[in-house]
Amino acid sequence: MAGLAEIGGGYLVWLWLRESKPIGYGVAGGLILVVYGIIPTLQQFPSFGRVYAAYGGVFVILAVLWGWAVDRKTPDLYDWIGALVCIIGVSIMLWAPRS
Q1: Domain extents in the chain
Q2: For residue range 65-85, what is the model confidence (pLDDT) as tens digits?
Q3: Residue 20, SS3?
Q4: Does residue 65 come out as left (phi exceeding 0), alpha (psi in the -120 to 50 range) or beta?
Q5: What is the SS3 assignment for 39?
Q6: What's the predicted TM-score (pTM) here?
């Protein structure tokens, strides 16, 4: 949810500022970004840094998929390799055995 809110909100602001869409796009994007700031606080992990670091890896994957689905920019091999590296990193951070 957080990833979709950040990408969706940022995309609306992008459309407003970079593609000359009406200001309503920017306002809607800004409101969605405020919601994005709230969503991560609902996670069960006790560590702020770990939640945001793990979210960063998931964000990369969502951004590649967003670009493919919404912007119609087909990811290449290196996009997929980078996304895979990120998800491996997220998995290590979240589920590595710790004492």
Answers
A1: 1-42, 44-99
A2: 999 999 899 999 999 999 999
A3: coil
A4: alpha
A5: helix
A6: 0.74
